[in-house]
Prior knowledge:
alpha+beta; Alpha-Beta Plaits; 3 domains; six-stranded antiparallel beta barrel; four-stranded antiparallel sheet; 7 helices; 20 strands; 23% helix
Amino acid sequence: MTRCATLFLVLAAVAALAPGAADATTRIKDITAVQGVRANQLVGYGLVVGLNGSGDSLRNAPFTAQSLESMLDQMGVNVRDSASRTRNVAAVLVTADLPPFAGRGARIDVTVSSLGDATSLAGGSLVMTPLNGADGAIYAVAQGPVAVSGFQIQGRAETLSQNVPTTGRIPNGALVEREVAGSLDDEETLVLELRNPDFTTAVRIADVINDYTKARYGRPSAREQDLRSVALRRPHNVSAARFLSEVGELVTQADSPARVVIDERTGTVVIGRDVQIATVAVSHGSLTVRITEGAQVSQPEPFSDGETVVVPETFVTVNQEGANLAIMGGTNLETLVRGLNMMGLRPMGIIAILQAIKTSGALQAELVVQ
Length: 370
């Protein structure tokens, strides 16, 4: 058995045998998100200057030349009648995520990506660039030196590169100029959205919250709406932030569906804790057929009128190993892992067997193939 298959089976067995694995609890804040509390995407177009000859060639990137002329015009420099040939400027697309409740003056990170034929943004600085939201309004302004993790060194006969030198980041490179309208205190009903939708998990979250609010506020506050959301009615004498903080620290047991995830490209197999297999007989072996083409020289008898000819010759060998019949079946992950481990399978063999068992109807779980 390969080391990869052994590691997979050992990890699955440890997860099945770990004490309290079936009763593991997690905080509500780790498995839910508040509806409406999300980031907003921003985008802008700008120029990176100060590059060491690794910027856009203005002849191949006319938009960079136009942007450079417009920027210099605003600064009182007229270069429209001159043919600039600088390679120290690059046109870039600037993107950022505006966090929820970010106030004016807050700083956010931005990502800078080249648009033209620049070879590297290392050593460059982003000129002041407004960042717009989906509504076209300006929410932040970015500026600062670009941090690039990649590099590219090119010679006449060889090029050495690492990572992507045409993309970089500016930590805290943008200042928030406009706030997104909205406040949690204006909402009497808050909605928690499950990161992994499930009816059982939603009901458990509502029950845990109701037990807490009955003891603290004298009445229940939660109601499950569907498999994805739980509605909360905020007490009038408590702020939304404090109420969500109290609810988020409560613990519950998140339910997960019986699911097997297979990635055929990497040979990765992930089996859920509740996966069950009905009793089946499995035979798995490898069949190898080898065909070898050769040639044999046929010569005539001495003192005969025959001719020497080359006769083709084919050799076929067949080898089959490991075609044993095994009985598999289990009501928990421990039994299933033990059965797969006893068969001594490689990851690709495990994938083939699980797919065949699912086709036969004996795998009582959802099979996801990536």
